[in-house]
Amino acid sequence: MKKREKLEIIRKHYPNALTTIDFINKIIDFIEEKLDLEPAEIMFADSICSDDVNSIQYPVRANEFLGPFKMGGLDGFPFTGLTGMQAFASHVPDDGAVFIYYGPHIGISKEGTIGEINRFGQHKPSSCCGAAHGALHKLLDNAIKPGHITEIDYQMNTIEQILYNQKDRILKADIPLFEATEIIYESIDRRIQQLIEATKYNCKYIILVGAVLINSDSDIGSFSSTKRFDVIDLKKGTRQDLLSTLN
Q1: I want to staple 222 with a disulfide (CB 3.0 to 4.6 A). Which of 44, 57, 96, 176 is the partner?
Q2: Residue of 229, 197, 188, 220 lying closest to 73 (CA atoms)
Q3: Contact 181, 104 (CB under 8 A)
Q4: What residue stretches are annotated with the Limiting CO2-inducible protein B/C beta carbonyic anhydrase domain (predicted)?
Q5: How far, in Å, CA of 119 to CA of 39, rounded?
Q6: Which of 134, 116, 131, 72 lies closest to 220, judged by CA?
Q7: How is 49-93 classified by DSSP, letter by letter?
Q8: pTM over 0.90
Q9: What is the pLDDT of residues 157-210, one digit of tens each?
């Protein structure tokens, strides 16, 4: 299947989606041309789901950065919290930058089915993101108790509470899993902003990319739909919205 055919499937739901390879190439080009830095001067962190498919479909060129530091747990929520962000910030080269990529993920099969993919070596589709899918089913079954977070399943319970707090919005949606993913993105974005505000960085820039990471079947690959692309100049104290440069 040609790239344009793959994109046609994904862009029915995410019109600005790029392949993850094209996405990371654009980011590296920007860093080199606009910030005059090399990938080896960038400390990279991601806050994406710990699902194995995200490691399998990770763009190889991302390995040119330092890292990655892993901030995310189930569906990408930054469960390493402030300690994780501060640890990551202390690892960055003094004259370099930090690059943070964050957001939930969702599956779209080659048939265009949202919420599932065919994984490597399997002949039947499975859910993606499984945590969001499971939390959504509990929500629809009225099986989530408000405020219920346990030690043994803390991450999943947190995702459940995020959806529970937006139950009406999800129930009104044409595609509940799509809407649930949007809600999880918004929650991740808010938390990342909080963590950045509470962290000191001894470098030149913070490169901040919020997105929905889209997985597809093993022979299709992965895609990224960017929702935020900000560059914070720590020396000048400025913040630029550069989202339009990726479209």
Answers
A1: 57
A2: 188
A3: yes
A4: 19-233
A5: 31
A6: 116
A7: ---HHHHHT--GGGGGSEEEEE---GGG--TTHHHHHHHHHTTS-
A8: yes
A9: 999 999 999 999 999 999 999 999 999 999 999 999 999 999 999 999 999 999
